[in-house]
Amino acid sequence: MNRMDVVQLDSLLSALYEASLDHECWGDALEQIKALFSANYVTLILKMPETQDEDDLGLMVSVGEMENSGRVVYFPYRHNLTPFVNQKPDTVFTQEDLMTPEEWHDCPYRIHWCACNDVYHVMAVDISTPDSGTLRFRITRPEDATPFSDEDRELCRFLLPHIRRALNIRNLLDRSQTLGSLYSKAISRLSIATVLIDENGQILDENVFAREILDSGDGLKVVGGRLEASYPSDNRELRRVIKEAFEGSRSESGTRLPEAMSVTRPSGEVSLGVVVEPIPSTAWAEGKGQPAAVVYIRDAVGKSQASNEVAKKLFGLTPAETALSLQLANGLSLEEAAEALNIRRNTARAHLRAIFSKTGVRRQTELVRIFLNSVAALGQGDQDPRD
């Protein structure tokens, strides 16, 4: 451990934890490890190909004299020749632990993969992680360099928990971002507009459905970057709702219901439904950063975004029956739906009888209800409601 001073340790650990937050920073962390061990390559294999299929690629980040050094890249691994498989997890080893110098010199893996890259001395460890399986970490030197020493092994073992922790943080963040993206898509697919605001009503972010409503200026609008209602009375109520939502989030009285109101639309359409819910923060972060809340906006007359294909599978309908059902779910009468679909009224009535038989409902209002309450909208692809 005498080869590493406090400044080096601080720099390397900072680089590792920066890498845990951003994939692009792995190059810096591995470059520092490369310099620390006087290596010519340092490689972190994040995923090994599972088959010999040419479309099955692994994922790794490596530094050294190569193309894409320091970048996370996909790579092929055609030859199942490596002698470093099935090693005990979290145990540092070198090629000398597995074979004699003569065996290593004649090893097909060294000949095909190592010699062409001036790789001879190899120090490796298979890092076990809670959720990502086993990741492979490799440090190499050329043949004319000194072999890895016991001190090198000790230093590698010292760094191992930090590398594992950085990888685990990255995995947890990736999972959290993925879940957040899925939830956001689910809300969008239900045609719910969402606006992220601060305590003063300044808009921090919005989804595409909210942008459509705000651009229309019919009930809600953006004035100077702030969310406002069209009518003064509604605007005063909106300010009160936002204020009470934030004050409620700071109270110690326990969980409170989100604040809600309706917003009148100048067009005369059905009022917009608005719910304001503060984003909770952890206790240790209380008072730090920018307070925020989510404004959910529901347009009761907005068209259903249900997927034709999913609706057809859910209810066992034909394409024609599905198309008619979705038109009815969007508020059209049977006659209006027939006209929109360019079919005869008698044909529409025949389709409706078949739909009633397959869904088990007896009235058109019941049909609309089961469609709007079904998961059909969640089965659609990502789309812009203005398309």
TrEMBL record:
One matching Pfam family is GerE
Gene3D superfamilies per the UniProt record, alphabetical: Winged helix-like DNA-binding domain superfamily/Winged helix DNA-binding domain (1.10.10.10)
InterPro entries from the UniProt entry: Sig_transdc_resp-reg_C-effctor, Tscrpt_reg_LuxR_C, WH-like_DNA-bd_sf
- Transmembrane intervals: none
Annotated ranges, domain HTH luxR-type: 314-371
Superkingdom of this protein's organism = Bacteria
Q: What is this protein called?
A: Helix-turn-helix transcriptional regulator
Q: Which organism is it from?
A: Marinobacterium alkalitolerans
